[in-house]
């Protein structure tokens, strides 16, 4: 075996690039939810804690659909799994039409839930598929690279939302028409993407992956690195969901910026996710992924403390930098948790995807504190980063005891 395995193989390149584009698509959808969070506060006149239910609808879908999506993909394959995910994504977007007509917060939450069922199905398929498109020693790098385009989607999402939804003074900034029209356009785009994917042929996966199915692999319940990864992913997305949900509120309430300007700064912070993932992919050529994960988690503990103490622009810059250090966490936790699981890989992927429900539980809890002080609410994610830091620090021992 070569000392430096290839990033991927030529025969996988077309599929790898197409699947990477899916990471971009769900990045747009998830960060648009944070723009909707603020817009619904203004238009539907709901509290910060209740608007946090937007994130519960989005991330809660992952807990509901994670295992069924894994079973579907195991039976019908990656291609049909991705097609199902795209169709659910489009359906949820089109449900914004009746939701806007009825001006019902609960109807919007249902539409977001259906859309997020599509996102969860896509994630359940895409992560193990990207990991399998080459040597397993470079799976961390491939997943981080693909997730970089999730970060790009995260930049585009709030920028689009701020311009079309939050921009003050425009015709539909105080109603739901712009929201409806934007999601119609998204639904049409995703539908076209699903049609294009019908013509993509998936290659036979790397045989080195298949050989692991022949070797006896311990049950998932005995794989400590997988169990800790699922727990760490729950807290990771919890921190993500809470941080993103109240970013615009922090800009408005603490920094006294307009909603539109806060939205653009949120877009800038999402650019830090993309930069962090490209930087992380490069650094992993020299630093073990679990070590880098622990260091970045420690840095975010410091960033959260600075944000909560509200030192003006210093704290706002720290809030933006949270996304830089957050960047590698989701893909790295995912990849580390799936290492050497053989025939259990797809099932493990389903469980780790379910951990995304943390992003639905944390925003309403942070909202209860944010109702009184948005800055103080940012002490809460520190709990999450402590768990992630412990996972990274202990990873070599977890792997050793699991095999």
Automatic annotation (TrEMBL):
Major localization listed first in the record, in broad terms: membrane
Record GO terms (molecular function): fucose:proton symporter activity
Annotated GO CC locations: plasma membrane
Keyword Cell membrane: yes
Residue intervals passing through the bilayer: 12-33, 53-73, 82-100, 112-133, 145-166, 182-204, 225-247, 262-280, 292-311, 317-338, 350-370, 376-395
Entry superkingdom: Bacteria
A Pfam short name: MFS_1
Statement: the UniProt record of this protein carries the keyword Chloroplast: no
Topology within the bilayer: Multi-pass membrane protein
Keywords assigned: Cell membrane, Membrane, Transmembrane, Transmembrane helix
Localization per record: Cell inner membrane
Matching Gene3D superfamilies: MFS general substrate transporter like domains
PANTHER family: L-FUCOSE-PROTON SYMPORTER, PROTEIN TSGA
Stated name of the protein: L-fucose:H+ symporter permease
Originating organism: Chitinophaga oryziterrae
